[in-house]
Structure formats: structure tokens, C-alpha cells
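pasting for the record
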Amino acid sequence: MTDLTTEQQRDFEAAAFRRLVEHLRERADVQNIDLMNLAGFCRNCLSNWYREAANADGIDLTKDQSREIVYGMPYAEWQALNQTEASDAKKAEFEAKRPKDQ
């Protein structure tokens, strides 16, 4: 593996995070339940991880604030524009695979 400085690693990880967030914003057609069922995480998980990192660094970031960072708009607005009702099959799959901490 290429030797990276701590700063390079941080910068590259930040760039990858920004690209992931941009991609998820562009793919609003992909529902969170689909992400959860397929990958075990979704936009909400990503916003929770962001908030946890901020809080660990002493920054008081709320759930709504971290979601707006990930979604690019208030969560309720994103839901109204993009969220569709999940099928019973998708809900059942989610319940079967649901992480224990949620």
C-alpha cells in the first residue's frame, strides 16, 4: 500500500465521503429501505455517523442538522419529494435484517 500522510488519508477519506453523499443525492430514486436491505446502511445511518463524529469532537450537532448535511435539504422535504411507500416484502426483509441497535 502507498504510504500516505495522516493529512492525505483524511483528505482522501473526506473526498470519498463527499462523493458518496453527492451520489446518494443524485440517486434519490434509491430508497433508504433498499439501501438497508442490500448494504446494511442508508442515508440516515450516514447522517448518524456524521453526527456521532461531530459530537465526539465536542460539536453539538442535532439529528436534523446532520440529516440536512447528508440529504442536502431538510429531511422532511426530502421525504415529501422522494420517499415512496415500501412494499410489504421490503418491510419484511428489513425487519429480518434489522441491525440490533436500531
